[in-house]
Design brief:
6% of the residues lie in helices and 47% in strands. The chain has 245 residues and is mainly β. The protein has a single domain (11-194), classed as Calycin beta-barrel core domain (Lipocalin, Beta Barrel). The chain has a ten-stranded antiparallel barrel with strand order 1-2-3-4-5-6-7-8-9-10. Strand 1 and strand 2 (35-47) form a beta hairpin. The chain is globular, with a radius of gyration of 18 Å. Residues 195-245 are annotated as: Disordered.
């Protein structure tokens, strides 16, 4: 099927057009001893109002192990997400992606024929963090890093973040590293695999089957829920129910 640009999309956003729409799936949170490794349910929505920018809304939920199935982390995003029952919001964020310049590829380099679009982003979350990001997007792949992170007096100490987003086999794959809680080096915090959904505003499905034996490189949800009990409402990046004490 031929790709068509979303209706009303500003020409400046054509390099970002593959992001537009709703995405749902699963992922993993982990940050040393602060955030025990756990499976999570995720949703991203990229939309626009005709202006030269995209709005990104991201929500991550912990999962209810009693209503979820274990999953194989090699499975497609929608299939894996359908195995999870969202429990509590861990974090939410709104960001704006704005292309600011385009660099033509080196004509002597056969491996880089796609132009590179330079990006600036701003983001905010309800746990008291705002950030300014810079980076690039080339084809179905983007990478950004924070240039400044501001926080309210009571927000968790986050000093630096980086993210990579890419389209792999039709799924939106993303990762985030961050430096927080006194850790100076960027350390893995979150990752996800999301599939495109036709109706982004439709509620997520609730798995009817009980938890089953994990497969592949799956994380057992019972174990993850036990490890994450008490931590699920304290997302270090911030969220609607985040707390820092």
């Amino acid at each position: 099927m031929a790709f068509t640009f979303p209706d009303g999309l500003a020409p400046e956003l054509y390099p970002l057009a593959w992001l537009v729409g709703g995405w749902r799936g699963y992922g993993v949170l982990t940050y040393g001893e602060t955030v025990p490794e756990q499976a999570v349910y995720q949703e991203m929505v990229f939309d626009h109002d005709g202006g030269p920018y995209l709005r990104q809304r991201t929500t991550i939920w912990t999962v209810d192990a009693t209503r979820s199935q274990d999953l194989d982390f090699e499975m497609p995003g929608l299939e894996g997400g359908d195995r999870l029952a969202p429990a509590q919001v861990w974090s939410t964020e709104t960001a704006y992606w704005r292309p600011v310049a385009q660099e033509e590829p080196d004509p002597d380099d056969a491996d880089t024929r796609t132009p590179v679009t330079r990006l600036e982003l701003v983001s905010a979350d309800p746990a008291g963090h705002v950030a300014v990001w810079e980076g690039w997007i080339q084809g179905p792949r983007a990478q950004v890093a924070s240039q400044a992170v501001g926080r309210s007096r009571t927000a968790a100490a986050v000093t630096q973040m980086s993210r990579m987003v890419g389209l792999v086999g039709g799924d939106l794959m993303w990762t985030q590293d961050m430096a927080a809680f006194g850790v100076e080096e960027l350390t893995t915090y979150a990752s996800g695999r999301l599939g495109r959904v036709a109706e982004p505003d439709a509620p997520p499905s609730d798995p009817a089957a009980p938890a089953s034996a994990p497969g592949g490189r799956g994380v057992g949800l019972e174990d993850a829920a036990a490890q994450g009990a008490g931590a699920g409402s304290a997302g270090p990046e911030g969220g609607g129910r985040g707390r820092t004490s």
